[in-house]
Amino acid sequence: MLQFSLFSEIKCGLSKCSNPMCLFLGGTKTTTDQISVDVEKLRSAAAWTFENILVLFAVTSLSHAGMEDMGVDTSRSCLERLEFDNVALKKLPLDPSTEPGVRQVRGACFSRVQPTPLKNPKFVAVSGPALALLGLDADEVLKDPLGPEYLSGSKVMPGSEPAAHCYCGHQFGQFAGQLGDGAACYLGEVKAPVDQSPELLLENPTGRWEIQVKGAGLTPYSRQADGRKVLRSSIREFLCSEAVFALGVPTTRAGSVVTSDSRVLRDVFYDGNARMERCSVVLRIAPSFIRFGSFEIFKRADEFTGRQGPSYGHDEIRTQMLDYVIETFYPEIHQNHSDRIERNTAFFREVTLRTARLVAQWQCVGFCHGVLNTDNMSILGLTLDYGPFGFMDRFDPDFICNASDTSGRYSYQAQPAICRWNLALLAEALVPDLPPDRAEQVLDEYLPLYNGFYLSNMRKKLGLLRKEEPEDEILITELMQTMHNTGADFTNTFRSLSQISCPTQQEEEDETEVIKQATELLLQQCASLEELKAANRPTMDPRELAMLLSMAQSNPALFQMISDRKTVARQLERLSRLKELMDTTAEQLTAKQTEDWSRWIKKYRQRLACECESGLDVKELQEERVRVMNNNNPYVVLRNYIAQNAVEAAENDDFSEVQRVLKVLEKPFSVQEGLEKPGWVGRGGAVDSGERDETGEQGNTSGAEARVLVPYDSKPPMWANEICVT
Fold this sequence. Notes:
Radius of gyration: 30 Å
Number of helices: 26
Strand content: 5-15%
Shape: globular
Structural class: alpha+beta
Helix content: 40-55%
Distance between the termini: 80 Å
């Protein structure tokens, strides 16, 4: 009877309490947690009766009902609890066709698609900081049995509306017509958590994060491809997105990389040696993935290629998309300008500023994008679409990270000019909403903006903090020239500069010794004779070069069709440099490198002396210099050999190296104890690095038989020269 009366009180109490999570036991307000305690008391009491069972059944049912009434379902996946608000699909025109397959999409910015499921998807790695943008906990996502399915597009999350974005682009200087998301798939826009930091809200004023899955299958824009990405390219994009963010450079983010048992055929080097590779998917995160090429879908027929944008003539959609971008992502500009022309000009000026700042940051960390087409340029000034990117090892202004870029159009030193060219094409795409004369005025501001950002960043990298001297630009130029002449490692040379101290009165008598020690420090980062010979070999076959030289004289018109003078001049310069090196001994090279660095260090120390004037505390200044320099000169970057090693580990079903590299790259400005070296090295195992031999190389580098196990902050081992990224 006691149990029955308790059951009656529960029913009675519920009718009196406005909170369904609360029950009354004997007139006392009690939560469901407390009920479980009382049930335990019942469990240990007299023998179980029918009434006992009724009590337990009632308590359990009421508890679950209460949770559901409050909108909380503990059985749901954390990804199913994401709140979507897909504004882009509401504000921009959608393709009404659901016709499958590749097609031209006219009069629309998006097409609805259905991602193609993967077979047995599984996580390779996740980025905690990136997932936190969506209010997700990395550990919870990893434990979620549905996580790999949802984050690969194999299963669609509640509220998600898969779609592909339509855009065009100028690729390697030529208008390519319709391109679009051939492998990427918009899943929707996730509302940011309420406690998102103010800094992130400044970066993303919408309070929403667009999420994409890259490699999720066919879309109307897949052209001749299959809409899939493979493990190697997915790991590279995942790691580099997070690495670039950690360096302080604006970028899209990567939340996870998923691989599978699904396979596709790939010819990596386009040489006929195709192989089956695992389909993989990257989760990408950004305020928006709208790009310069998004506005080129309205382009009239191109005078060179004859191609036109699929939405040519739909000027009202261009205006609609421009309004959407400004109102959504540049709200201050929208609020401050009632006149449309003034508003649009201010918008273009801000995009120009962000682009100039972005490319200056790339140059200062030695990053080369590789494919700076207009369809790979973010309208928000973010690093977008990581393909054949590369961080420079040995400094070379002509560094080309994309083996397919035979002309060097997107080389390291070409990036600032190419970004301005792309801005000019964006301005052209915005006419008449942006009058050409107004756009030209803004474009004239680009180079001064870029130079200002570049010089400011470089001063921090050199520890020039107190003064801005006119000769700083010359000092920086001479540093880069010295690095080039000596084949110095870009990242490690800058990191080493903090060890060169400001001169003091006590050091005047030892100036020669100080310069000698500093020179020896930097010589450790210089290339050996054999490395420089390999680096300066022409990339063009000698017979082809001879033919082009002859053609340039005999048939200039034909020469212009198949090559250009800049490409040929670069090859001739390499030949000249190689001939010079062939006539040089290792001892002569070292002597020349020593002379070059001693000369520059002397000038650098003279400039540092200017920082110490006006009675400043030299010790305090030196401490500040080291701190600032070490926060602007990374200890480690995602070199190609580091990424390749992680890829090969993953291809051997060991994902630990990808996860290890991610941890290292999340804190690129500091050494992390226990994470100094790779945990996995392929091709015949590892040989720990030894002392330098007579050739200047480290350890035993016997080709494919073994790899040198070097720290993440080391100059690349010899086997890294074999890596080719297309």
